[in-house]
Amino acid sequence: MSTVTREVASEAPPGAREQLLQTASDIMREGDIVDISLSELSLRSGLNSALVKYYFGNKAGLMKALLDRDMEGIIHAVDALMAKDMPPEVRLRRHIGAVVDTYYKTPYLNRLLMRLVRESDPDEAHRIADSYLTPLSRAYDKLIADGVKRGVFRNVDPQMFYFTTTGAADRFFASRLVLKHCYDTDTLTEELRDRYREHCIDFIMAGILAHQ
Q1: Count of Cβ atoms closer than 10 Å to residue 189 Cβ
Q2: Alpha carbons 204 and 45: distance in angstroms, whole number
Q3: What is the C-alpha to C-alpha distance for residues 95 and 168, in angstroms, rounded to an integer?
Q4: What is the pTM of this model?
Q5: d(C-alpha 121, C-alpha 83), whole Å
Q6: Domain boundaries, the chain
Q7: pLDDT at 192
Q8: Inter-residue long-range contacts of 25-28, CB under 8 Å, 24+ positions, other chains counted
Q9: Inter-axis angle of helices 38-45 and 16-31, to 10 degrees?
Q10: Domain 60-208 adopts which CATH fold?
Q11: Contact 20, 55 (CB under 8 A)
Q12: CB 188 within 8 A of CB 173
């Protein structure tokens, strides 16, 4: 690492690393993109772009660190929800609502995940899958199995249910152009999020609840 980079890092304010990550997240959310320019990152954050090299190695390292930050939060939240003692249908309603909230906050998430898996070397791709995708898959297996065992869920395929739930949230919040040209809005408002959260919970639960 160059002396210049070390000097820049020594003058960085506390929390500079986290500020770079959050600014990158804000840029991608607002622009409906899965990339950033270091010049815009520097301008928006007020930080020297050399800090990207210091903290992350390069822009690709920044993107990986952002994915780790976002996905680790999801895994922790899912683990905490699965550990709670509550009826399966209540747990699932809360989970669906949380999925919608997650994609409202980070609409780039699935596109970033797929991009990094595709562009990374095999070891890194396996790390991403083992760290984030496999734990989510296992959580869905247990979530569905618990509901089936108690007679409140139909015996649906957990894998297909995962794609249905995450796909519904990802598709909606990644469709800014459709909102703009068909519905005269391209702003992801809290009111829009709340309407879609209620819609998803109602529709998805109607498809999995066993007929009483």
Answers
A1: 10
A2: 39
A3: 13
A4: 0.88
A5: 34
A6: 1-57, 60-208
A7: 87
A8: 25/66, 25/70, 25/106, 25/108, 28/108, 28/112
A9: 110
A10: Tetracycline Repressor; domain 2 (1.10.357)
A11: yes
A12: yes
CATH of domain 1-57: 1.10.10
Q: pLDDT category, 183, cuts 50, 70, 90?
A: low
Which residue bears the tokens 């909606």?
A: 172
User: Residues near 54 by Cβ (< 8 Å), separated by ≥ 6?
Assistant: 1, 5, 6, 8, 9, 12
Residue recorded with tokens 């997650």: 102
The pLDDT assigned to 204 comes to 95
- pLDDT above 90 (res 143): yes
Quote the tokens at residue 94: 């809360």
**CA 159 to CA 171: how far, in whole Å?**
18
CA distance 45 to 16: 9
**Residue 186 — pLDDT band, cuts 50, 70, 90?**
low
Distance CA 164, CA 107 (A): 16
